[in-house]
Amino acid sequence: MQRRTFAFAAVASLAAPWVRAQDLPSGPIRIIVGFAPGGGTDVLARTIAHKLSILWNTQVIVENKAGATGVIAAEYVAKQPGDGKVLLMAHVNSHAIAPALMQNVKYDPRQDFAPITLVGVTPNMLTCNETQQVRTVAGIVDLCRRQPGKISFGSSGTGSAQHLAFEMFRMAAKIQAVHVPYKGSSAMVTDLLGGQINYAFDTMTAATPYVKQGKVIAVAQTRLKRAKSHPDVPTMAESGFPGFDAASWYGLAGPKSMPAAMVKRMNEDINQILAQPDVADKLEQFGAEDAGGSSQKFADFIVSENTKWARVIKDAGVRADS
Q1: Which of 93, 141, 149, 255 lies at a C-alpha separation of 20 to 30 Å from 29?
Q2: Going from the N-terminus, what domains does the chain have, and what CATH number goes with each?
């Protein structure tokens, strides 16, 4: 009896790696990014892809399908088989904002994907250039009230998370101000530095290099708590707007038909990667925090973000062509 028990245990031990291996796709895996190479979403996706290639001993490739603020990439992944060979670097734009803003989105972010892991949540920043004398949130509100409809705020595009952060601020402060949309952060920063716009809501990722160089002043950040990478920059909540929370975020998801065991395995492995010191340092550089956790945590987060941004879009009267 003892010999048979030992034999069974030995077979089970040998079989365990094989069983666990079945929870992963065979062959190369693609992570689809809905933005151009070099941006924050792309950089974080490539960091994770490199680590997964090592951990899974297979090729994990990042493929960029830019366009429509991430919608094109999300539509593509939603239609893929659930074999885990195609994943999406989901984003606040593709999974929370666009479905409420755009008429022709052909997927439901709550129903058509299998959320795997939240990769990080990044504050936006309210910024100005170094010549701007008014550098506090209270001062900006007062300035806008003294000059209604004349103070301009740039964003990286209509319907972007940064545009909606401005709309949240405008409604909460009860001010009249001008929104100036750009095709990306780079052109916006150029005009901010040149004085063509008064203020900007920008991603912390894009703004940080200019802040460190002293070219751009960080007035406030838009999460409820201060990012570790910018401990001296107050939050909007601390600056007179309690509950103000307008962040960008990233997470890995797959098509909805992915097996639960595969989602669980990927979640565990990605959580392991996110905890590695060099990856944690990379996330901190981007101001990305609250990474990891269960797949259910990410699913619940997507639902809450959908609800929040749909309300802001409706209340502010934002349209995709505005």
Answers
A1: 93
A2: 27-122+248-316 (3.40.190.150), 123-221 (3.40.190.10)
